[in-house]
Amino acid sequence: MQAMENKLTAAKYIFPIQTADGKNGYTPAKETAVCSQPQRPKDLKLVESTADVNPVLLQVLADCTLEVHDDSENTESRGVSRLFSFLQILTAMFGSFAHGGNDVSNAIGPLVTLWLIYTEGGVQQKSETPLYILLFGGFGISVGLWLWGRRVIQTIGEDLTTITPSTGFTIEIGAAFTVLLASKVGIPISTTHCKVGSVVFVGYFSTSKKGVDWSLFRNIIFAWAVTVPISAMLSAGIMFSLRWAILL
């Protein structure tokens, strides 16, 4: 009797769905909701332990378990994950190096120009950038990452697609090489654009088309499209205001 009560309690915990009488239970119409519960069964033992609760419930348990089993086939072995987890530390350092070579330059370029005009009266073709300005730019990016970077990290690293250590390794390598090559030839590009492109297509080829959140990707593309004219208009408006204030 006690064992049966334990099974019923476990089933109600796994499937907290309200029935018409207000009690926790299961109805066939709720199958989709059942399978989407975060507490869905993880192995067949749990399915067997609830066999005498409800035959329909047993079938849904089995379906959810097979779904989990199918998903687990795409996961990596512990040895592979451990190897690429270590390699990702190196690729993250490589990516940070590439990021510093391009994005820091983008951020402090206008500041360097203002500083050279202030100190030298103009900008020479081969003017040297002071080291402390480079350090200031790196410090600013680090503080921005610490204060505001968590949400962007979640969007790229978790929401777009599922990333494993091996796919993360390939994403870092591809994006870092692209940014580093652009920095070498003097082309200012966005590290974020490169990372998002790598994440989406690595996720697509490593899982499937359904493995990528395409609606989120479309939102990111839309944000890229609108931020260029918005930033241009804001900058032009600020410049116009400053010139108007100075002339007065």
Automatic annotation (TrEMBL):
This is Uncharacterized protein. It is found in: Membrane. One of its GO terms (molecular function) is phosphate transmembrane transporter activity. The chain crosses the membrane at residues 131-149, 221-242. It comes from the Eukaryota. Belongs to the inorganic phosphate transporter (PiT) (TC 2.A.20) family. InterPro entries: Phos_transporter. GO terms for cellular component: membrane. Keywords: Membrane, Phosphate transport, Transmembrane, Transmembrane helix, Transport. One of its GO terms (biological process) is phosphate ion transmembrane transport. It holds the Pfam family PHO4. It is a multi-pass membrane protein.
